[in-house]
Protein backbone atom coordinates (compact mmCIF):
# COMPACT_ATOMS: atom_id res chain seq x y z
CA UNK A 1 0.00 0.00 0.00
CA UNK A 2 2.72 2.45 1.00
CA UNK A 3 4.74 1.76 -2.16
CA UNK A 4 1.68 2.07 -4.39
CA UNK A 5 0.85 5.43 -2.84
CA UNK A 6 4.45 6.61 -3.23
CA UNK A 7 4.63 5.59 -6.89
CA UNK A 8 1.43 7.50 -7.73
CA UNK A 9 2.66 10.64 -5.98
CA UNK A 10 6.12 10.33 -7.55
CA UNK A 11 4.48 10.32 -10.98
CA UNK A 12 2.43 13.38 -10.01
CA UNK A 13 5.52 15.24 -8.74
CA UNK A 14 7.61 14.07 -11.71
CA UNK A 15 10.35 12.69 -9.47
CA UNK A 16 13.14 11.23 -11.67
CA UNK A 17 13.21 7.42 -11.74
CA UNK A 18 16.80 7.29 -10.52
CA UNK A 19 15.84 9.12 -7.29
CA UNK A 20 12.73 7.13 -6.38
CA UNK A 21 14.45 4.17 -4.73
CA UNK A 22 16.44 6.56 -2.54
CA UNK A 23 13.20 8.11 -1.30
CA UNK A 24 11.33 4.83 -0.98
CA UNK A 25 13.78 2.31 0.50
CA UNK A 26 14.51 2.48 4.25
CA UNK A 27 17.91 3.61 5.45
CA UNK A 28 18.13 0.74 7.95
CA UNK A 29 16.03 -2.35 8.69
CA UNK A 30 16.97 -4.39 11.74
CA UNK A 31 15.64 -7.82 12.74
CA UNK A 32 16.55 -9.19 16.18
CA UNK A 33 15.92 -12.36 18.15
CA UNK A 34 14.79 -11.71 21.71
CA UNK A 35 15.20 -14.61 24.16
CA UNK A 36 13.03 -14.11 27.24
CA UNK A 37 12.91 -16.17 30.43
CA UNK A 38 9.24 -16.86 31.07
CA UNK A 39 7.59 -17.13 34.48
CA UNK A 40 7.47 -20.94 34.27
CA UNK A 41 11.26 -21.11 33.86
CA UNK A 42 11.23 -21.81 30.12
CA UNK A 43 12.87 -19.59 27.51
CA UNK A 44 10.89 -18.25 24.56
CA UNK A 45 12.46 -16.45 21.60
CA UNK A 46 10.51 -13.54 20.11
CA UNK A 47 11.29 -11.67 16.88
CA UNK A 48 11.64 -7.89 16.95
CA UNK A 49 12.12 -5.23 14.27
CA UNK A 50 13.16 -1.60 13.91
CA UNK A 51 13.11 0.25 10.59
CA UNK A 52 14.55 3.75 10.09
CA UNK A 53 13.27 5.19 6.84
CA UNK A 54 15.44 8.28 6.40
CA UNK A 55 17.69 10.58 8.46
CA UNK A 56 17.75 13.54 6.07
CA UNK A 57 15.81 16.01 8.23
CA UNK A 58 16.91 14.85 11.68
CA UNK A 59 16.67 11.78 13.90
CA UNK A 60 14.05 9.20 13.05
CA UNK A 61 10.81 9.06 15.06
CA UNK A 62 8.21 6.36 15.40
CA UNK A 63 6.34 4.01 17.67
CA UNK A 64 6.98 0.48 18.88
CA UNK A 65 4.09 -1.97 18.70
CA UNK A 66 3.70 -5.31 20.45
CA UNK A 67 1.26 -7.41 18.41
CA UNK A 68 1.02 -11.03 17.18
CA UNK A 69 0.83 -9.95 13.53
CA UNK A 70 3.88 -7.64 13.43
CA UNK A 71 6.02 -8.23 10.32
CA UNK A 72 9.04 -6.50 8.80
CA UNK A 73 6.95 -5.36 5.83
CA UNK A 74 4.32 -3.77 8.07
CA UNK A 75 6.96 -1.98 10.13
CA UNK A 76 8.72 -0.72 6.97
CA UNK A 77 5.45 0.65 5.56
CA UNK A 78 4.61 2.39 8.83
CA UNK A 79 8.08 3.97 8.92
CA UNK A 80 7.54 5.31 5.40
CA UNK A 81 4.17 6.83 6.34
CA UNK A 82 5.78 8.35 9.41
CA UNK A 83 8.36 10.06 7.16
CA UNK A 84 5.67 11.76 5.09
CA UNK A 85 3.68 12.59 8.26
CA UNK A 86 6.63 14.34 9.93
CA UNK A 87 7.49 16.25 6.74
CA UNK A 88 3.84 17.29 6.22
CA UNK A 89 3.64 18.76 9.72
CA UNK A 90 7.08 20.38 9.51
CA UNK A 91 8.80 18.27 12.19
CA UNK A 92 12.61 17.82 11.99
CA UNK A 93 12.38 14.03 11.84
CA UNK A 94 12.61 11.09 9.52
CA UNK A 95 10.21 8.20 9.95
CA UNK A 96 10.83 5.02 11.94
CA UNK A 97 8.80 2.15 13.35
CA UNK A 98 9.48 -0.85 15.53
CA UNK A 99 7.68 -3.88 16.78
CA UNK A 100 7.86 -7.25 18.46
CA UNK A 101 5.78 -10.21 17.30
CA UNK A 102 4.02 -11.16 20.54
CA UNK A 103 0.66 -11.04 22.29
CA UNK A 104 1.14 -8.64 25.24
CA UNK A 105 -2.21 -9.70 26.68
CA UNK A 106 -0.81 -13.20 27.30
CA UNK A 107 2.37 -11.99 29.01
CA UNK A 108 2.73 -11.23 32.71
CA UNK A 109 4.07 -7.84 33.77
CA UNK A 110 7.43 -9.45 34.53
CA UNK A 111 7.60 -11.17 31.15
CA UNK A 112 6.65 -7.94 29.39
CA UNK A 113 9.37 -6.04 31.22
CA UNK A 114 12.04 -8.64 30.42
CA UNK A 115 10.94 -8.67 26.76
CA UNK A 116 11.06 -4.87 26.57
CA UNK A 117 14.47 -4.57 28.20
CA UNK A 118 16.06 -7.27 26.04
CA UNK A 119 14.58 -5.75 22.88
CA UNK A 120 15.92 -2.33 23.94
CA UNK A 121 19.37 -3.82 24.57
CA UNK A 122 19.45 -5.12 21.00
CA UNK A 123 18.49 -1.66 19.66
CA UNK A 124 20.96 0.42 21.70
CA UNK A 125 23.56 0.84 18.90
CA UNK A 126 20.82 2.20 16.62
CA UNK A 127 18.74 4.50 18.87
CA UNK A 128 19.45 7.75 20.71
CA UNK A 129 18.05 11.27 21.22
CA UNK A 130 19.82 12.47 18.05
CA UNK A 131 19.51 9.21 16.11
CA UNK A 132 16.17 7.44 16.64
CA UNK A 133 13.50 8.24 19.26
CA UNK A 134 10.88 5.51 19.89
CA UNK A 135 7.35 6.08 21.22
CA UNK A 136 4.31 3.97 22.21
CA UNK A 137 2.11 2.30 19.62
CA UNK A 138 -0.35 -0.59 19.59
CA UNK A 139 0.23 -2.87 22.58
CA UNK A 140 2.71 -0.55 24.31
CA UNK A 141 2.24 2.29 26.78
CA UNK A 142 3.92 4.72 29.19
CA UNK A 143 5.27 1.91 31.35
CA UNK A 144 6.96 0.23 28.37
CA UNK A 145 8.56 3.57 27.45
CA UNK A 146 9.80 3.95 31.04
CA UNK A 147 11.50 0.53 30.83
CA UNK A 148 13.13 1.51 27.52
CA UNK A 149 14.37 4.79 29.01
CA UNK A 150 15.74 3.03 32.09
CA UNK A 151 17.52 0.31 30.07
CA UNK A 152 19.13 2.85 27.74
CA UNK A 153 20.09 5.18 30.62
CA UNK A 154 21.75 2.34 32.56
CA UNK A 155 23.74 1.42 29.45
CA UNK A 156 25.12 4.93 28.85
CA UNK A 157 25.60 5.72 32.53
CA UNK A 158 23.29 8.71 32.99
CA UNK A 159 19.59 9.58 32.76
CA UNK A 160 18.46 10.17 29.16
CA UNK A 161 14.76 11.16 29.17
CA UNK A 162 14.97 12.21 25.49
CA UNK A 163 15.52 8.61 24.32
CA UNK A 164 11.75 7.99 24.13
CA UNK A 165 8.54 9.99 24.12
CA UNK A 166 5.16 9.02 25.48
CA UNK A 167 6.66 8.20 28.89
CA UNK A 168 5.15 9.12 32.29
CA UNK A 169 5.11 12.84 33.08
CA UNK A 170 7.13 12.17 36.24
CA UNK A 171 10.01 10.85 34.10
CA UNK A 172 10.07 13.74 31.64
CA UNK A 173 6.91 13.05 29.68
CA UNK A 174 4.81 15.88 28.30
CA UNK A 175 1.44 16.97 29.61
CA UNK A 176 -1.18 16.20 26.99
CA UNK A 177 0.86 13.54 25.18
CA UNK A 178 -1.45 10.62 26.03
CA UNK A 179 -4.52 12.40 24.64
CA UNK A 180 -2.77 14.16 21.75
CA UNK A 181 -3.65 11.81 18.88
CA UNK A 182 -7.34 11.64 19.77
CA UNK A 183 -7.56 15.39 20.37
CA UNK A 184 -5.87 15.98 17.02
CA UNK A 185 -8.41 13.74 15.29
CA UNK A 186 -11.28 15.65 16.92
CA UNK A 187 -9.76 19.03 16.00
CA UNK A 188 -9.40 18.07 12.34
CA UNK A 189 -12.92 16.60 12.24
CA UNK A 190 -14.16 19.93 13.61
CA UNK A 191 -12.27 21.79 10.85
CA UNK A 192 -13.75 19.46 8.23
CA UNK A 193 -17.25 20.06 9.61
CA UNK A 194 -16.66 23.82 9.40
CA UNK A 195 -15.44 23.43 5.81
CA UNK A 196 -18.47 21.35 4.79
CA UNK A 197 -20.98 23.39 6.78
CA UNK A 198 -21.99 20.52 9.08
CA UNK A 199 -23.08 21.76 12.53
CA UNK A 200 -21.44 19.81 15.34
CA UNK A 201 -24.54 19.92 17.50
CA UNK A 202 -26.56 16.87 16.51
CA UNK A 203 -23.98 15.35 14.14
CA UNK A 204 -23.35 11.62 14.56
CA UNK A 205 -20.05 9.73 14.75
CA UNK A 206 -19.08 6.05 14.52
CA UNK A 207 -15.67 4.97 15.84
CA UNK A 208 -13.94 1.68 15.06
CA UNK A 209 -11.32 1.13 17.75
CA UNK A 210 -12.24 2.46 21.19
CA UNK A 211 -8.68 2.52 22.50
CA UNK A 212 -6.52 5.48 23.42
CA UNK A 213 -7.13 7.33 20.14
CA UNK A 214 -10.79 6.44 19.63
CA UNK A 215 -11.94 7.06 23.20
CA UNK A 216 -10.25 10.47 23.46
CA UNK A 217 -11.60 11.50 20.04
CA UNK A 218 -15.09 10.42 21.14
CA UNK A 219 -14.97 12.47 24.34
CA UNK A 220 -13.58 15.52 22.53
CA UNK A 221 -16.25 15.37 19.84
CA UNK A 222 -19.02 14.78 22.38
CA UNK A 223 -18.00 18.00 24.15
CA UNK A 224 -18.71 19.82 20.87
CA UNK A 225 -22.21 18.31 20.69
CA UNK A 226 -21.48 15.35 18.39
CA UNK A 227 -23.51 12.23 19.20
CA UNK A 228 -21.41 9.02 19.33
CA UNK A 229 -23.72 6.26 18.07
CA UNK A 230 -21.36 3.27 17.77
CA UNK A 231 -17.91 2.16 18.92
CA UNK A 232 -15.93 -1.08 18.80
CA UNK A 233 -12.78 -2.81 19.97
CA UNK A 234 -10.99 -6.05 19.06
CA UNK A 235 -13.82 -8.12 20.56
CA UNK A 236 -16.77 -6.48 18.77
CA UNK A 237 -18.90 -3.35 18.75
CA UNK A 238 -21.99 -1.68 20.20
CA UNK A 239 -24.56 0.58 18.57
CA UNK A 240 -27.21 2.95 19.87
CA UNK A 241 -28.75 5.34 17.28
CA UNK A 242 -29.81 7.66 20.11
CA UNK A 243 -26.21 8.09 21.25
CA UNK A 244 -24.00 6.30 23.75
CA UNK A 245 -23.50 7.51 27.32
CA UNK A 246 -19.70 7.89 27.18
CA UNK A 247 -19.25 8.39 30.92
CA UNK A 248 -21.06 5.13 31.67
CA UNK A 249 -19.27 3.42 28.76
CA UNK A 250 -15.84 4.41 30.05
CA UNK A 251 -16.68 3.06 33.51
CA UNK A 252 -17.89 -0.18 31.90
CA UNK A 253 -14.70 -0.51 29.81
CA UNK A 254 -12.48 0.16 32.83
CA UNK A 255 -14.20 -2.71 34.65
CA UNK A 256 -14.70 -5.21 31.80
CA UNK A 257 -11.80 -4.34 29.45
CA UNK A 258 -14.15 -4.31 26.44
CA UNK A 259 -17.13 -2.39 25.06
CA UNK A 260 -18.95 -5.66 24.28
CA UNK A 261 -22.01 -6.22 26.46
CA UNK A 262 -22.51 -2.56 27.35
CA UNK A 263 -26.16 -2.09 28.38
CA UNK A 264 -28.59 0.05 26.34
CA UNK A 265 -26.80 -0.79 23.09
CA UNK A 266 -27.08 -3.54 20.51
CA UNK A 267 -24.18 -5.70 19.37
CA UNK A 268 -22.55 -5.03 16.00
CA UNK A 269 -19.47 -6.49 14.35
CA UNK A 270 -16.47 -4.41 13.33
CA UNK A 271 -17.35 -4.99 9.67
CA UNK A 272 -21.00 -3.95 10.16
CA UNK A 273 -19.99 -0.89 12.18
CA UNK A 274 -18.15 0.61 9.18
CA UNK A 275 -21.37 0.58 7.15
CA UNK A 276 -23.60 2.34 9.69
CA UNK A 277 -25.07 5.70 8.55
CA UNK A 278 -23.32 8.63 10.24
CA UNK A 279 -21.84 12.05 9.61
CA UNK A 280 -18.35 11.09 10.83
CA UNK A 281 -16.67 7.70 10.50
CA UNK A 282 -13.39 7.25 12.38
CA UNK A 283 -11.46 4.04 11.72
CA UNK A 284 -9.00 4.07 14.65
CA UNK A 285 -8.00 0.41 14.81
CA UNK A 286 -5.94 -1.66 12.37
CA UNK A 287 -4.79 -1.22 8.77
CA UNK A 288 -6.82 -2.22 5.68
CA UNK A 289 -10.32 -1.90 7.16
CA UNK A 290 -11.90 0.02 4.28
CA UNK A 291 -11.42 -2.06 1.15
CA UNK A 292 -12.70 -2.48 -2.38
CA UNK A 293 -15.41 -4.69 -0.89
CA UNK A 294 -17.03 -2.14 1.41
CA UNK A 295 -15.94 1.32 0.19
CA UNK A 296 -19.01 1.78 -2.02
CA UNK A 297 -21.34 1.02 0.91
CA UNK A 298 -19.90 3.40 3.50
CA UNK A 299 -22.49 5.97 4.63
CA UNK A 300 -20.64 8.96 6.06
CA UNK A 301 -19.81 12.56 5.12
CA UNK A 302 -16.38 12.71 6.80
CA UNK A 303 -13.93 9.80 6.88
CA UNK A 304 -11.31 10.62 9.53
CA UNK A 305 -8.48 8.09 9.53
CA UNK A 306 -7.35 7.78 13.14
CA UNK A 307 -5.47 4.54 12.34
CA UNK A 308 -2.48 4.13 10.03
CA UNK A 309 -3.40 2.84 6.57
CA UNK A 310 -7.04 1.94 7.23
CA UNK A 311 -8.01 2.49 3.57
CA UNK A 312 -6.60 0.31 0.79
CA UNK A 313 -5.62 1.69 -2.66
CA UNK A 314 -8.56 -0.24 -4.16
CA UNK A 315 -10.92 1.54 -1.77
CA UNK A 316 -9.30 4.88 -2.61
CA UNK A 317 -10.23 4.43 -6.28
CA UNK A 318 -13.87 3.92 -5.28
CA UNK A 319 -13.87 6.78 -2.77
CA UNK A 320 -12.37 9.14 -5.38
CA UNK A 321 -15.63 8.70 -7.29
CA UNK A 322 -17.67 9.65 -4.21
CA UNK A 323 -17.47 13.43 -3.75
CA UNK A 324 -20.02 13.08 -0.93
CA UNK A 325 -17.22 11.75 1.34
CA UNK A 326 -14.53 14.11 2.64
CA UNK A 327 -11.40 12.21 3.69
CA UNK A 328 -8.96 13.37 6.36
CA UNK A 329 -6.01 11.10 5.45
CA UNK A 330 -4.11 9.18 8.11
CA UNK A 331 -0.79 11.04 7.81
CA UNK A 332 -2.66 14.24 8.66
CA UNK A 333 -5.50 12.94 10.83
CA UNK A 334 -3.46 11.03 13.41
CA UNK A 335 -0.40 13.30 13.39
CA UNK A 336 -1.25 14.83 16.79
CA UNK A 337 0.66 12.06 18.55
CA UNK A 338 3.97 12.65 16.81
CA UNK A 339 3.57 16.43 17.06
CA UNK A 340 3.29 16.30 20.85
CA UNK A 341 6.03 13.65 20.91
CA UNK A 342 8.18 16.29 19.23
CA UNK A 343 7.19 18.77 21.94
CA UNK A 344 8.15 16.20 24.60
CA UNK A 345 11.54 15.62 22.94
CA UNK A 346 12.19 19.38 22.80
CA UNK A 347 11.22 19.78 26.47
CA UNK A 348 13.52 16.90 27.47
CA UNK A 349 16.47 18.35 25.53
CA UNK A 350 15.94 21.73 27.22
CA UNK A 351 14.97 20.33 30.65
CA UNK A 352 12.24 22.98 30.53
CA UNK A 353 8.61 21.89 30.58
CA UNK A 354 5.39 23.49 29.37
CA UNK A 355 1.87 23.60 30.75
CA UNK A 356 -0.88 21.58 29.07
CA UNK A 357 -2.51 24.72 27.66
CA UNK A 358 0.71 25.69 25.89
CA UNK A 359 1.07 22.16 24.50
CA UNK A 360 -2.48 22.17 23.11
CA UNK A 361 -2.12 25.65 21.65
CA UNK A 362 1.05 24.67 19.78
CA UNK A 363 -0.53 21.37 18.66
CA UNK A 364 -3.60 23.04 17.18
CA UNK A 365 -1.48 25.69 15.43
CA UNK A 366 0.55 23.03 13.62
CA UNK A 367 -2.55 20.99 12.74
CA UNK A 368 -4.26 24.12 11.41
CA UNK A 369 -1.32 24.92 9.16
CA UNK A 370 -1.03 21.35 7.86
CA UNK A 371 -4.79 21.10 7.24
CA UNK A 372 -4.83 24.46 5.44
CA UNK A 373 -1.91 23.57 3.17
CA UNK A 374 -3.37 20.16 2.35
CA UNK A 375 -6.85 21.54 1.64
CA UNK A 376 -5.41 24.34 -0.51
CA UNK A 377 -3.49 21.86 -2.70
CA UNK A 378 -6.56 19.60 -2.83
CA UNK A 379 -8.67 22.44 -4.24
CA UNK A 380 -5.97 24.01 -6.43
CA UNK A 381 -4.86 20.83 -8.21
CA UNK A 382 -8.12 18.89 -8.01
CA UNK A 383 -6.53 15.92 -6.24
CA UNK A 384 -7.77 13.94 -3.26
CA UNK A 385 -6.92 15.05 0.28
CA UNK A 386 -4.74 11.94 0.67
CA UNK A 387 -2.86 12.71 -2.54
CA UNK A 388 -2.40 16.32 -1.46
CA UNK A 389 -1.05 15.36 1.99
CA UNK A 390 1.31 12.74 0.59
CA UNK A 391 2.52 15.14 -2.10
CA UNK A 392 3.43 17.80 0.45
CA UNK A 393 5.28 15.32 2.68
CA UNK A 394 7.14 13.49 -0.08
CA UNK A 395 8.11 16.71 -1.87
CA UNK A 396 9.68 18.15 1.30
CA UNK A 397 11.82 15.03 1.86
CA UNK A 398 12.79 14.94 -1.83
CA UNK A 399 13.83 18.61 -1.78
CA UNK A 400 15.84 18.09 1.43
CA UNK A 401 17.72 15.14 -0.09
CA UNK A 402 18.45 17.16 -3.23
CA UNK A 403 19.74 20.09 -1.20
CA UNK A 404 21.99 17.95 1.00
CA UNK A 405 23.28 15.99 -1.97
CA UNK A 406 24.71 12.48 -2.03
CA UNK A 407 27.91 11.71 -0.12
CA UNK A 408 30.40 10.04 -2.50
Distance from first to last alpha carbon: 32 Å
Radius of gyration: 21 Å
Residue ranges: pLDDT <50 for 5 or more in a row?
none
What is the CATH fold-level name of the largest domain?
A: Rossmann fold
Number of strands: 12
Largest sheet: 7 strands, mixed
Query: Rough shape?
Result: globular
CATH architecture of the largest domain: 3-Layer(aba) Sandwich
Helix content: 40-55%
CATH superfamily of the largest domain: Leucine Dehydrogenase, chain A, domain 1
Main β-sheet, spatial strand arrangement: 9-8-7-6-10-11-12
What count of helical segments does DSSP give?
A: 14
SSE class: alpha/beta
Domain count: 2
What series of H and E elements makes up the topology? HHEEEHEHEHHEHEEHEHEEHEHHHH
Mean pLDDT: 95
The level 1 CATH classification of the largest domain is Alpha Beta
InterPro entries: Aminoacid_DH-like_N_sf, Glu/Leu/Phe/Val/Trp_DH, Glu/Leu/Phe/Val/Trp_DH_C, Glu/Leu/Phe/Val/Trp_DH_dimer, Glu/Leu/Phe/Val_DH_AS, Glu_DH, NAD(P)-bd_dom_sf, NAD_bind_Glu_DH
Binding site for substrate: 61, 85, 341
Binding site for NAD(+): 181, 212
Active site: 97
Amino acid sequence: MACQQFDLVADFLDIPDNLRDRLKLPRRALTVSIPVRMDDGSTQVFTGYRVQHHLTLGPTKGGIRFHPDVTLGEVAALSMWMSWKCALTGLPYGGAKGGVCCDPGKLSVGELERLTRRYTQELIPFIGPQLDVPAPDMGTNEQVMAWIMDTYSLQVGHCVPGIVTGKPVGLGGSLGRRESTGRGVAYLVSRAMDTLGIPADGATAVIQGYGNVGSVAAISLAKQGVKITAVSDAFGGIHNPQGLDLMALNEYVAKNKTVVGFPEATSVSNAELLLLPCDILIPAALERQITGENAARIQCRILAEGANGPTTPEADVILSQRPDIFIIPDILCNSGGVIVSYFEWVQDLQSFFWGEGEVLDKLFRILEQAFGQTFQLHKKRGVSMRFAALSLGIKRVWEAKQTRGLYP
